[in-house]
Design goal:
The complex is a heterodimer of chains A (about 400) and B (about 260). In chain A, about 45% of the residues lie in helices and about 20% in strands. Chain A has about 400 residues and is α/β, with parallel strands linked by helices. In chain A, the strands form 3 sheets. Chain A has a 6-stranded mixed sheet with strand order 3-4-14-9-10-13, sandwiched between helices. In chain A, strands 1-2-12-11 form a 4-stranded antiparallel sheet. In chain A, strands 7-6-5-8 form a 4-stranded parallel sheet, sandwiched between helices. Chain A starts with 14 loop residues before the first strand and ends with a helix. The relative contact order of chain A is 0.16. Chain B is of the alpha/beta class and about 260 residues long. Helix content of chain B is about 50%, strand content about 15%. Chain B contains 11 helices and 9 strands. The two termini of chain B are about 30 Å apart. The chains are: A alpha/beta (about 400), B alpha/beta (about 260). The interface between A and B is large, with 38 and 42 residues. Chain A: Its cofactor is pyridoxal 5'-phosphate.
Chain lengths: ~400, ~260
């Protein structure tokens, strides 16, 4: 591979190639431009970065360990597998990395009211957590279907003082929650900060969420050098919107020797039409402020996504992923609900770690890939979240005998 | 002169504001929608905004969301929306028709193809809610070449510094969103609207239509004193749903009676 610069800033239109942009109603344009300006100022300020570092160390518990998954490595008999332990962060997932950053930004901008969308509830919990910590009002939009399947996280958000607004439009999942959050934002433009949970939405969100999540990859880089004296050979992460994957991958993009694999949710299988794999089974379109790959019909109506994992149940993907896909820099694959469940159970029993169902998609790809690789192949998988929240789903399936 | 330019000139001559009626194409089905569309001019609609239904209308309130959903469930799509326009134009050559909606269905159709087909069908202008001036290149140049006007939106958040950007390439009319929020919810503050319109008129001569939250004749009347046009949408859709085409046309006539200027 010839060396190319894949670590790019979005262009003047907020785009990575043709993807991204600021496709929002006029009411929101001044707000996203204001946010971009505030973010550019903040990230150039050592005091802002120092405060972010302090919260990451003392509140989130960073750095998260790079753990050698010895038993899983033995079981597959191939690549040496490492877990980047984002599930050990405060609130149990990588989502908090982004929320701390955005909360500091909101405070700088004088915004007192935070809104967020959530699917699995991990971003909602992380948002509610930082709002409690910084004394901000918190309103979380969550699909009614997701409220049911992730009720533990709903209880957690309420404990933290957040108001949960159930969304019944559409299929009552993440996409509909995002629609409703955008409607709130357009109504409460003066005091409200929209804390988007993934590397999607209008520019500058894909960029700023990526930057706040890139700490995952920066740490993994340093930890791997310390431990093995060289770069990893491959990185694997699950993708809904794609924030944990972008966080792990981005710092490595310009090392051509590092392979990267993003794992989408194939649901019941891409050929069944019931899936959430926007890159493997979608086409370019415009939704939620950005141009990216979407699940849609021939008329441009957005299709319902399906995944066992609420956090991957979204018909789009971050625009920078769409660009990296077209550039061929990252390989994108998809695994089914069943493959993810198998990997989930195996991880519980082999490594003593209960992973989130989202994360289990990445582990399923590891199961497919690791046995075929040589023993000196260093593979890092992002353990993006813990699975406690998935107990109702898992127990339900176990009762059904699946 | 475009149909829109002619219509605003006529209204100005008659000393009244233009009544702009929004309906959702295919709500609740193609035939009802066509009947309503064909009845609107005689009932007093000066300009018609025909909504292109989209599954995820993020700037719309519950009424228009539900209308879009009904239309899609009834099999409405971009092709059939253009077919509605063709059928309307068989009977009416003078009433301006603006297609309003979100970008993705146009993107999926293919921007160039859509503009060609829309112009051929007899569409006068496009209002694409999630296509801000920054992304004018997506459709703007092609639309202008095809003789379609691009309607721009200005809102209470559009400050003096941003306004020139919004007004650049604005033609047909400027749609002023009366208050921050989604369609059909809340109400306009008339004093604030009047002030905002003054600021815009200092920079542009494009006619200004005010919409969002205008439901009844008594709300429309004061806006008609200050704006070049008044847009009503959600209230008409509710009337259609509750009392059919006759009720929607009845409301149109009441609103039209509120358009003359007093001075």
């Amino acid at each position: 591979m010839t060396h190319q610069n894949y670590r790019r800033e979005a262009d003047a239109l907020g785009q990575f190639g043709q993807f991204g942009g600021r496709f929002v109603a006029e009411s929101l344009m001044p707000l996203v431009l204001q946010l971009e300006k505030a973010y550019n100022e903040a990230r150039a300020e050592p005091a802002f970065i120092a405060e972010l570092d302090r919260f990451n160390a003392e509140f989130v518990g960073r750095p998260s360990p790079l753990y050698f998954a010895e038993r899983l490595t033995e079981q597959y008999g191939g690549a040496k597998i490492f877990f980047k332990r984002e599930e050990l962060n405060h609130t149990g997932a990588h989502k908090i990395n982004n929320c701390i950053g955005q909360a500091l930004l909101a405070r700088r901008m004088g915004k007192q009211r935070i809104i967020a969308e959530t699917g699995a509830g991990m971003h909602g919990v992380a948002t509610a957590t930082v709002c409690a910590r910084f004394g901000l009002q918190c309103v979380v939009y969550m699909g009614a279907t997701d409220i049911h399947r992730q009720r533990d996280n709903v209880a957690r958000m309420r404990l933290l003082g957040a108001e949960i607004v159930p969304v019944t439009s559409g299929t009552g999942t993440l996409k509909d929650a995002m629609n409703e959050a955008l409607r709130d934002w357009v109504t409460n433009v003066d005091n409200t900060f929209y804390m988007i949970g993934t590397v999607a939405g209008p520019h500058p969100y894909p960029t700023l969420v990526r930057d706040f999540q890139a700490i995952i990859g920066r740490e993994a880089h340093q930890q791997m050098l310390e431990r093995e004296g060289r770069l990893p050979d491959s990185l694997v992460a699950c993708i809904g919107g794609g924030s944990n994957a972008m966080g792990l991958f981005h710092p490595f993009l310009d090392y051509p020797e590092v392979q990267m694999v993003g794992v989408e949710a194939a649901g019941h299988g891409i050929d069944t039409g019931k899936h959430a794999a926007s890159l493997k089974g979608g086409t370019p379109g415009v939704l939620h402020g950005n141009r990216t790959y979407l699940l849609q019909d021939g008329d441009g109506q957005i299709a319902d996504a399906h995944s066992i994992s609420a956090g991957l149940d979204y018909p789009g993907i971050g625009p920078e992923h769409a660009w990296l896909h077209e550039q061929g820099r990252i390989e994108y694959v998809a695994v089914t609900d069943q493959q993810a469940l198998d990997a989930f159970h195996n991880c519980c029993r082999t490594e003593g770690i209960i992973p989130a169902l989202e994360t289990s998609h990445a582990l399923a790809e590891v199961a497919r890939r690791a046995p075929t690789l040589p023993k000196d192949h260093l593979m890092v998988v992002c353990l993006s979240g813990r699975g406690d929240k998935d107990m109702p789903t898992i127990l339900g399936l176990m009762e059904e005998g699946k | 002169m475009s149909r829109l330019d002619v219509r605003f000139a006529d209204c100005a001559r008659d000393n009244r504001a233009a009544l702009v009626t929004y309906i959702c194409a295919g709500d609740p089905d193609f035939d009802t929608s066509l009947e309503l569309l064909q009845g609107l001019p005689a009932a007093g609609a000066d300009i018609i905004e025909l909504g292109m239904p989209f599954s995820d209308p993020t700037a719309d309130g519950p009424t228009i969301q539900a209308a879009a959903l009904r239309a899609l469930q009834g099999g409405q799509n971009q092709q059939r929306t253009l077919e509605l326009v063709r059928r309307f134009r068989e009977q009416n050559q003078s009433t301006p028709l603006v297609l309003m909606g979100y970008y993705n269905p146009i993107h999926r159709y293919g921007g160039a193809d859509f503009i060609r087909d829309a112009a051929e069908a007899g569409v006068d202008a496009l209002l694409v809610v999630d296509l801000p001036p920054e992304h004018d290149n997506e459709l703007g140049p092609m639309a202008r070449d095809a003789g379609l006007q691009m309607i721009r939106l200005a809102t209470p958040t559009t400050d003096a510094q941003r306004l020139p950007r919004v007004l650049e390439h604005a033609s047909g009319f400027l749609y002023y969103v009366s208050h921050n929020g989604v369609t059909g919810v809340g109400a306009a503050d008339h004093t604030a609207v009047a002030q905002a319109l003054e600021g815009i008129r200092a920079q542009s001569s494009v006619p200004i239509c005010v919409g969002f939250g205008v439901r009844r004749a008594e709300q429309a009347a004061p806006l008609a004193q200050v704006a070049d046009g008044v847009v009503v949408g959600s209230a008409l859709i509710e009337a259609l749903q509750q009392g059919g085409v006759a009720a929607a046309l009845g409301l149109t006539a009441e609103l039209a009676a509120a358009m003359p200027r007093q001075a």
